[in-house]
């Protein structure tokens, strides 16, 4: 606690993000109590040292016994103070950090501040008054939207919504002290957020609005418990006296925080941060400066990748072989921005600003100016080799040369240049401007600072980068492949596409494997298999008939014009039954549990091989890949976490059983799974041991 005249300034200093661990709560309580009792103090300012005001509860304390004082107790003590209390916030006042400010009479913010209640992303709801106080300050609709999305809002919006009283340009603490002095001089009435009623009163007559919100959320949240609890808590804010509402919020919070969903979501929070750490990087390594990017190819992937750069404010040049392809690519990009504007997700000026960062050309010479080049041309080794040959001749000596291949050998591509150290893979996921995952493929010779640069660029363009090694399909697609194989196999043994898809959706995936094939296009795999001389029993028969999926209105399902809803098709079912017969496979009823396990356990098995080969550094990296790239339900923590949760012996035994039932050797448990299961070990501990080594 410091003093500036009659104003006491309490500074929370717990780097890096001022998380509200026990000592911070105790310290705040002690100093607020002292300042309240000190007659020479006329107002109290609360602020945070370093890069941010408090970014919330200390997540590592969750699931352990809470050491008093609890945050709610600290906030209640602040609320009782009879002199002006002002929270001066900067950086990211989040979760419990924002809740502390709601216990103060006033809030002032530095210009770049982003304020929010992100608890929903951790599978919980705010537990120290957020659901009761925020709607009283900003209204039910805005408050609920912030709580349900978990996304922070900028200071300007917070000012407009009434969450912030003033934006302070220049020195935040000086400005906050000046604000405090103004409040004292004007004898401004003290605003107790808990006593405000005008913004929530109108909702008291419309409890049906909460039912509507709950119905909407149930549809979207795919098994998540926290969103419905959040609606319930905000309903309590409107319908109950404030102290009863706080009690209800606490009950809902407590139930969630000890639950499996939140545990899994907290695991993913830390797994994402762990993925940023590359075990064998020299310390103090600096990424290279990336001020300009070049993307080769204006197709679906190239366009999406280019948008990601432009969205992050990095100028990007797109190179195509001819004007027509270039125009097609730019038209798509413009259309995508326009859709965002129409949806209200982007202001027109912002869309224009981003679009202006994109330049198109048919001359490879553009590569000369690039700090990073990302090749996104047709997925064929010979074409990739030609492109890299050209890049080698044209690019600056220290430019990072990246390929967006999804399957091909990055080392072979690197070898076509005289600078394999500068080459790596950046595997984006479609649509590349939306999907968060970025697999960074580390080649045999990739230089550490090239890897660090790709990681830094990935984060800058809003992705979650995860380093993987070279193998066919890297981590994500390599694990997808056994799942797709089993999905087909299940059809031959007795299931129908809708049975398999329904089981996958019930498990928590956004869509099942067959709906996904229809969306991605059955012809993609069909062409690859044709080139390899292999064949898929059902999918390739459909593709032979021109049933490519959604784009042709028919695939595993039928799609009515303009609709993406799959309708089961008797013709496909006939094809499946005939295939079983031809192959002499007796069709049987396959229950949901078997469907889910046959889809998921082979993925886990492949994940174990990937870990064993060192293609992924840790099991948690694999989980991050599946959550951010393939719609694995976050509340189940990722495939490897899920396997640990079920127990590896169970996964091993089921795989062995299914291998027998279906006569499919590829289902047999992998050596690592077998070993860990025998030792009663886990993938998590295997990853940790390897990292330590
Ligand atoms: N608790 C514990 N550790 C935290 C933390 C938290 N709330 N927030 C961040 N950290 C840790 C990270 O794990 C990371 O540690 P390592 O360096 O060891 O990996 C370090 O702080 C820095 O974090 P980031 O790498 O994420 O830094 P950033 O600058 O990219 O992002 C941030 C900063 C926006 C604050 C981001 O860390 C974040 O979103 N944190 C979580 C915020 C949150 O969810 N708060 C709500 C907590 S729940 C709550 O408050 C419940 C309640 O009602 C009481």
Structure description:
The protein is an alpha/beta fold and 693 residues long. It is built from 29 helices and 18 strands. The strands form 4 sheets. It has an 8-stranded mixed beta sheet with strand order 11-10-9-12-13-14-15-16, with helices on both faces. It has a 6-stranded mixed beta sheet with strand order 1-2-3-4-5-8, with helices on both faces. The chain has a two-stranded antiparallel sheet with strand order 6-7. β15, α17 and β16 form a beta-alpha-beta unit. α8 runs antiparallel to α9 and α12 crosses α13. The longest helix is centred in the middle third of the chain and has 21 residues. Bound molecules: acetoacetyl-coenzyme A.
What are the defining features of this structure?
693 residues, alpha/beta, six-stranded mixed sheet, globular, binds acetoacetyl-coenzyme A
Summarize the structure.
The protein is of the alpha/beta class and 693 residues long.
Termini gap: 44 Å
The overall strand count is 18
* Count of alpha and pi helical runs: 29
Q: Bound compounds, please?
A: acetoacetyl-coenzyme A
Percent helix range = 40-55%
Structural class: alpha/beta
Oligomer: single chain
Uncertain runs with pLDDT below 50, 5 residues or more? none
């Amino acid at each position: 606690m410091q003093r500036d005249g009659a104003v006491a300034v309490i500074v929370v200093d717990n780097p890096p993000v001022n998380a509200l661990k026990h000592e911070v709560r105790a310290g705040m309580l002690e100093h607020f109590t002292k300042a309240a009792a000190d007659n020479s103090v006329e107002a109290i300012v609360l602020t945070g040292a370093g890069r941010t005001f408090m970014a919330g509860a200390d997540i590592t304390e969750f699931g352990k016994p809470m050491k008093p004082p609890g945050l709610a107790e600290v906030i209640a003590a602040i609320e009782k103070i009879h002199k002006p209390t002002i929270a001066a916030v900067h950086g990211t006042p989040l979760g419990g950090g924002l809740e502390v400010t709601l216990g103060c009479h006033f809030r002032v913010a530095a210009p770049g501040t982003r304020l929010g209640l992100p608890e929903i992303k951790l599978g919980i709801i705010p537990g120290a008054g957020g659901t009761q106080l925020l709607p009283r300050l900003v209204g039910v609709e805005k408050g609920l939207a912030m709580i349900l999305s978990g996304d922070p809002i900028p200071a300007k919006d917070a000012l407009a919504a009434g969450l912030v009283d003033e934006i302070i340009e220049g020195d935040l603490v000086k400005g906050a002290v000046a604000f405090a002095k103004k409040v004292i001089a004007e004898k401004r009435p003290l605003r107790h957020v808990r006593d405000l009623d005008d913004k929530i009163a109108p909702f008291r007559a419309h409890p049906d609005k909460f039912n509507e919100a709950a119905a909407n959320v149930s549809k979207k949240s795919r098994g998540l418990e926290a969103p419905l609890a959040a609606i319930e808590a905000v309903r309590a804010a409107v319908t109950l006296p404030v102290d009863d509402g706080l009690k209800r919020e606490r009950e809902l919070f407590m139930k969630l925080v000890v639950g499996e969903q939140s545990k899994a979501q907290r695991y993913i929070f830390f797994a994402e941060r762990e993925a940023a750490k590359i075990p064998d990087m020299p310390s103090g390594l600096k990424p290279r400066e990336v001020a300009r990017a070049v993307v080769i190819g204006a197709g679906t992937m190239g366009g999406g990748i280019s948008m990601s750069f432009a969205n992050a404010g990095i100028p990007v040049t797109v190179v195509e072989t001819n004007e027509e392809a270039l125009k097609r690519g730019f038209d798509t990009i413009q259309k995508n921005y326009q859709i965002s504007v129409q949806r209200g997700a982007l202001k027109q000026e912002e869309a224009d600003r981003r679009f202006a960062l994109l330049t198109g050309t048919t001359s490879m010479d553009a590569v000369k100016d690039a700090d990073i080049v990302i090749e996104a041309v047709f997925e064929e080794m010979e074409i990739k080799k030609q492109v890299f040959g050209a890049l080698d001749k044209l690019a600056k000596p220290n430019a990072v040369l990246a390929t967006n291949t999804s399957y091909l050998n990055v080392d072979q591509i690197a070898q076509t240049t005289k600078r394999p150290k500068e080459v790596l893979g950046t595997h984006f996921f479609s649509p590349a401007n939306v999907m968060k995952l970025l697999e960074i493929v580390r080649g045999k010779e990739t230089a550490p600072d090239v890897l660090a640069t790709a990681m830094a660029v990935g984060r800058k363009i809003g992705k979650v980068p995860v380093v993987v090694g070279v193998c066919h399909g890297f981590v994500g697609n390599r694990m997808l492949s056994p799942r797709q194989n089993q999905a087909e196999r299940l059809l031959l043994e007795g299931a129908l596409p809708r049975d398999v898809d329904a089981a996958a959706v019930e498990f928590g995936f956004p869509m099942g494997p067959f709906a996904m094939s229809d969306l991605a296009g059955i012809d993609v795999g069909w062409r690859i298999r044709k080139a390899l001389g292999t064949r898929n029993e059902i999918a390739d028969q459909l593709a032979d008939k021109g049933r490519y999926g959604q784009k042709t209105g028919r695939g595993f399902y039928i799609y009515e014009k303009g609709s993406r809803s799959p309708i089961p098709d008797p013709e496909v079912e006939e094809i499946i039954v005939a295939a079983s017969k031809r192959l002499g496979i007796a069709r049987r009823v396959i229950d949901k549990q078997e469907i889910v396990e046959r889809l998921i356990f082979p993925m886990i098995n492949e994940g174990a091989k990937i870990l064993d080969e060192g293609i992924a550094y840790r099991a948690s990296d694999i989980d991050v890949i599946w959550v951010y790239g393939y719609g694995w339900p976050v509340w189940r923590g990722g495939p490897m976490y899920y396997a640990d949760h079920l127990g590896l012996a169970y996964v091993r035994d089921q795989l062995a059983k299914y291998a027998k039932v279906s006569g499919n050797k590829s289902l047999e448990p992998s050596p690592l799974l077998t070993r860990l299961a025998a030792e009663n070990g886990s993938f998590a501990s295997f990853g940790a041991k390897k990292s330590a080594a």
